[in-house]
Each structure stands twice: as C-alpha cells, then as structure tokens.
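Notebook, student rotation project (T.W.).
Task set for the rotation: take a protein with a known small-molecule partner, predict the structure of the complex, and write up what can be learned from the model alone. Partner molecule chosen: zinc ion. Sequence and SMILES entered below by T.W., checked by me.
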Amino acid sequence: MKQLTLATVLTNPVSNGAQSQRKPSPPAYLDTRVTKSQRENKRTRSQRARERLRTKEHLTRLAVGLGEVELAHKIERCHSRLSVLTCGRHIARIIPNFTCEFRLCPDCGRRRSRKLQSKYLPAMRAFMLHNKVTPVHLVLTQTHRKENRKQSAKRIKDAFKRLHRNSFWNEYFKGGTWSLEFTKDKNGLHHTHLHIIGFRRKFFDIELLRGEWLTATGDSHVLHLKPIVDIAAGLREVVKYVSKPLDIRRFGADDLKEFLGLKNMRMFGTFGEFRDFCKDFEPSDNEGAAVGELESLARDLVEGCACPQCSEPLFDLRMSGKELPQFYEQAESSPPGKVGTSWN
Ligand SMILES: [Zn+2]
Ligand SMILES: [Zn+2]
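Predicted structure of the complex:
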C-alpha cells in the first residue's frame, strides 16, 4: 500500500499521454496564476525537467551579467551530475552532486518544497485532529503601489500582523501557515499576495472578514477563500509559491538584483496556536509514515531493491543534469525494463 503511494508520486502519472492526467480541483476563486499552475501540472516530467534547465541557464546568464560570477558558477554546478536510481522506466531517487540552495533555483526549490511538506503535514493533520478545526485556503491581496519587492512584502506582512492580532480573527481562526507570493504586472508593479492555510474554528461571514482586511490594510478588501478538502494538496499548493516565487524566465537583471537583496526574507511561516503546536510536535511513527513516506522510503531504496512501481530491480545510473529530460522522455514512452541499457 505504501509502495503504491510512493510510486504514484515518484513517477509521472502522465507517462502515456498528457490527456489522461487527473485534474487538480477547479480554481473556483482565483485568477490566471492558478490556471497557469494547472497547465504546468499537465506537462510531462521531461518537459518540466527541460524547463528547469532553461530557467537555470537564464539565471546563470543574468548572474554573470551582474558580475555575480560565484553565484552563476554555483547554479551551473547544481544538479549538473546526477546519480539516478531507476529500473529503467521509473525513477525512484535522484541524488545530485551538488545543490546551490539559491532561492530561485528550480531544482533546489523543488527540494525545499518537499522538505516543507514533510515537516508540516504531520503537524497539520495532528493539529486538525486534536482541535476539531477545518482548514481553509485564504488569499490576501493588497493594492498595487510603486514600491520595490521588499517594501511590498513588508506592507502585506504588516497588514497581516494587524489582522491576526484582532479579536475577530482569533475568534474564527486557531492559527495556520502563511506564505508569500510575488508576481509582477506588465507595468512592473509588484503584486504580493499572502497565501494562508487557516484552521477555522467555525463558519463566518466572508464580508466581515473583508471588512477586517480593509481595516488592516487601509485600502484593500480583496481576498479569496476556499475550503481545503485534502490538506496534503492544500499544503502542496501554498508551498509552491515559496519554491517558485514567480515566472523567473521573465526575470531581468534588475529583478535578480532585487531578489539578491531579499536574502534573509522569510517566505513561509506559522502563526497562532498552530505555531506553538509545531514547536512541541513530534510526529509519531504513524503520522510520520503517513507523510514522510516519500522521503524516507526513497531514502531506504538502494541498488538491487525492487522498483516501487513495477518491481523490476533498481540500478544506479550516472548522467549529467542535461541528460535528464531525455531520459524521462525515453522512460515515458518505453515498456517496462527497456530503457536502462543504452544509458550505461
Ligand atoms: Zn540549486
Ligand atoms: Zn519501475
């Protein structure tokens, strides 16, 4: 049973044609960015791997242009050599030679996002169970002003602090997580949003919340709220913004420069009673297994183990990061056990 879960996530369910992919729940409340992420989900693993390579090349060029040679070198080295544990068709685990940990690096972003998920999901599940609260996804927005990314982020975070200090908020919410999302419009204005997973104590009138948000911001009452049916999917959605701040391929040198200035800015955090809960929370074996299954099961796999998806023996394949998209491509279109040999 566990193996099935692992397998489902580790390999792309779209391997036999993008059309068959099961759709994420429809974005009843949001705008084009959600549509865009859905489009991203529809792409195959090879397409996404290729996209990551292009993004990194773009970042490297920008870094060189800014004279940030060391950063450029680090991004270039990151995931440039891979040790891939595979049955030839499915990938159980990828171990990179080096990780740059740069916030905009798409490879490191994926890892960061997985780490956040395995850290917070067990706590969220336990918190919900102990407190009988239901999770909602709340998106708080603010008006657009001529300001830099740092100012824009500070403004919305300060407004949120005011909101969660007031009695209305505390009556209805028992805590949760927040994450920042940055986008930029055609006129170069920053759109900074806060994505909140809020643990709701009881129902409330959304208009009241709009009023409270208007009081907190001084000029914006725009927010979106939807219930979270599956907490794992809800968390995945909000950490996505942390791991992938915006469309980096449209980044110019100025954007990168500005981002380098944000080095220590927090993009994700917890608040309220959930925050205290996380401090003391130790997942039990069951809770840990329910969530950390991905990471821990994959970590236990070694050469010779059975592939979690097809039970063929796993073997270690060395390749360069640039070869990964092609490998995915072959794997996506091959019958079981037929890919590996040509890569040795
Ligand atoms: Zn990296
Ligand atoms: Zn397999």
